[in-house]
TrEMBL record:
Residues 497-559 form the Secretion system C-terminal sorting domain. It comes from the Bacteria. Keywords: Signal. The keyword Transport does not apply. This is T9SS type A sorting domain-containing protein. It comes from Flavivirga algicola. InterPro entries: Secre_tail, Spore_coat_CotH_CotH2/3/7.
Amino acid sequence: MKNLFLTLSILLNSILGLSQPLTINISENHFKIDEANSLIVSHIENIETYNNISGFSEVIMSLNQNDYSFNSIPTALEYSNSYLVTGTSTANQYTLYFTQLPIISIESSSTILDEPKTLANFVYADNEQILISKIGIELRGGFSQSFPKKTYDLEFWEDDNGEDTHNVQFGNLRSDDDWILDALYNEPLRLRSYVANKLWLDLHTPNYLEDESKAKSGADVKYVELFLNGGYNGIYNLSEQVDKKQLKLKSFKDEIRGELYKGVSWGGAVNFTRLPTYDNSSRIWGGYEMKYPKDDDITDWDNLYQFTDFVMNSSNTQFIDNIWEEFDFDNYSDYFLFLNLLRATDNTGKNVYLAKYQSDEPYFYVPWDLDGCFGTIWNGNNENITNDILINGLIDRVIVLNPNNSATAISNKWFEYRNNVFDSTSLIEAIETQYEFLLNNKIYEREALVHSNYPFSEQDLLYMLNWLENRLNYLDTYFGNILSVNENNSKENKVSIFPNPIKDKIYIANINYLADKEYKLFNFSGKLINQGNIKENFIPIKNLEKGYYFMVLDNETYKLLVK
């Protein structure tokens, strides 16, 4: 009824030329004011209602009963604009932005340290919920602690000392007492880790999902805007934790069942380059931190030591026969493809979790801290390298020994993914969607007011998209050559085309053999649909209806399916 009345008032005012003020009431916690930067960020209910307000004599924002008058009457209120307003009681001028993102406010009277956690008051507000709680907060990260924009670890407390905690939930993220606010300071567009985390969740599911239906393969994230002690701190990823609860690992019961180790430094064991001796009085070994079992259960590195020893020192025959019993192949192949698509150079060992669901199951990888990817590295600098393959000691030995012809299986999986989750259009859309949201909602503009380390320009986007195109082309060739070698080693076939079913491209594995040769594509009724000569390692196929087709290539006929 309120919105209907407002709409009718605006319409009547426009028709009759009435001159009256418009007051917009914003309730407590749905706005924050940064006095030092003269900045207001606010939610607004049903912003589309204010698409024509130019006829009012005055427009006033009432923020928890404190009024701010617009310096000039806007035509409309939009997320894609900013407005100058003046406080009616103070005469101070502010820049006002409306946001679609949740607003988080954290107030602490103590200095926030690396550890221990210090008491703070926390408020979260979006259009669905307001959450107010005490928290313990501490700095998170290593080198990133030197950045002016910090990453934080949060724990939700019942009391001032953190003796009792409680779970909270934000939107569709999980319910938990432990959360991360990731600063994104070393990301030129503040979107790489967001897109990468979402991509991993789309790509991979745990192999034990039938037994643990709520298990996730990694951490989910959502954007928020943070005010810290009254100052605007910019955009953050509010992130779930990678832990036993997220992965649904089996609990410790007088013996180790589920295991979780976090790669925190380049200590040799994390990337299978060195096998140091272990000390069960320490929760750190070889670059790993033991996260589960917990300290008060047991500290025993023997399982991980034996696995690392097997990867590094087993005989070739032992490795070939047993590696996929020791490490989950589906996870390995997905992680290898994901790692190399992103070229996430820090995630070959240091920024990865190694986990085991239960004692008789294989190990698997979980990525974290995905800020250095898509053509940037850990410090935020661009590294325009697209023509290499990232490895560690495990990956290198799998490539060299090729157990169970894993190279062919992984290459086929690559081209299968290129038709869906790694489809060029889908990847570009995921990046552009986030860029356009942040740009059009003026988030880059207000981020630059307090953290101007990057220009947040279209040039950054073009670099990222160009890098991605070159990376995909290189990996298409790399995996195509693997299939080509396998096909050329076969006496039965000289030609290899894939995938089948197809979407928009037919890839040619052995391009050197087929260069400049003619191809013809016919529908199931024998009508010629397309023809040409092989110039690249793929044939573009677009706008075909679902069904069966025939391709004639090098005097051979191939039956293809478009789904």
